[in-house]
Design goal:
The longest helix has 35 residues. This protein folds into two domains: 238 residues, no CATH class; 225 residues, no CATH class. The mean pLDDT is 84. The two termini are 36 Å apart. α3 packs across α9 and α13 runs parallel beside α19. It has 490 residues and is mostly helical.
Amino acid sequence: MGDNLKQKTLSAFTWTTIDRFGQQLVQLIIGIILARLLSPGDYGLMGMVMIFAALSYVLVESGFGQALIRKTEANETDYNSVFYFNIGIALVLYALLYFLSPAIANFFKQPELVSVNRITFLAIIFNAFYLVPYSKSAKILDYKTIAKVNIISVSLSGLLGLTLAFFHYGIWVLVIQHVSYHFFRMIFFYVFVRWKPKLIFSFRVIRSFWKFSIHLLNTSILNIIFNYLFVIILGKFYKKSEVGYYMQGNKLSETFNFTFQSILLGSTFSLFSHIQHDDARFRRIFGELSNKISIITFPIILCLIAAGKPLIEIVWSAKFLPSVPYFRLLCLASLFLPLYTLNISALNARGQSRITFRIEMIKKILILIAIFITFSKGIIPMLWGYAVANIAAYFLSIFYIKSELKHGLKQQILGFIQSLGWGLVLGLMVASLSLLIKPSYFLLPVQIFLAAAVYLLIIKIFYKELYDKGMDFLKNRLLSLKQGLHQNKF
């Protein structure tokens, strides 16, 4: 990897790490407080709204963000055309959802959703305004700016939510927190990026991006629908509190899984786009990332499954203990997700968005088959089927990687099998501690300490090169931070 690209990638990795840990730490602290002030029903109502908001975000973006990042020489006509397209779609969607809000409320049999929807969907418009500044930053691997915007926005919106919670505003706490987050992102992206739109628009640009982005858009739409599929099922056939339990279990699962996935994969599409035409280099970097991701994510996810009960009780409080089985099965479903996302990222960077859409279609068909078979047996069997379908989709994706990168199936499987074994050992060790220690406030710290100690020992003995590089990386980052503080002082 060239020195300049290597330095940019290292910086992107560092700031993506700061971004994800910073955001998730703030969200976790605020979430712990809010979980004690709000009811499961409040979270359930918000979950019913979010499927439409999340779907709107991907429709507004339309895959053009990645198209801008992938284009080698994007110009002002490209950026401005995408900017006005995003805003136009956002305004149309908001108007449509505004008038559909009574129908949505009627579907879930929750009349209060009408006003909740109409305020929440304002975030769609705010989101549209900052998509181009975000893409400009990601294109040049400027994840420092993205991290600053995200952490400031999540902190301000979180503080606003906490203030409303102490005055007992119920569901409106979550609504205002969500809308203000996107509002603050809009403001601060323009403060830091300093890009100003111009009166330029070209349908030719939209058409040229469409061939690539349409498959990304279709994939994103499928992902949103299926990510919220159980919210729809629970919201329609179960009590809203059951939706709340699912949402909290899912939120905690995403807090950990999405954090590590974003750290490891947040900058890979931009990186792969830079080296998309160098097959040997692409294959080597892909293999290195795959091996490192495996040894980090498998042990963490399997330990989270094992420590699910004390984790939920301490973080969300005992009233959310019904979330435990949801949390564990959603973690299981995401076991191979980082590796799967790496495969998808690599294929998209090579221009194979049609193939990635095909993979997602097959994945969704498997999920639907699993739900159809298990629907009459309840939500837990359905989640087991969901987990099996997600794991099967990863093994499907490795066949396409073999074809596109000439990276053999045996190489890919051997790349993670040892890491999976160590993850199972650590998970069993963590689970066995619950047989010896009962109080959650004592059990969880012991589980974390012992798992971390054994994990570091495994890395040091069996992955010495990774251990040494990790230590060097931390030393260099701490030294840079110390030098920066010293320069600022004088």
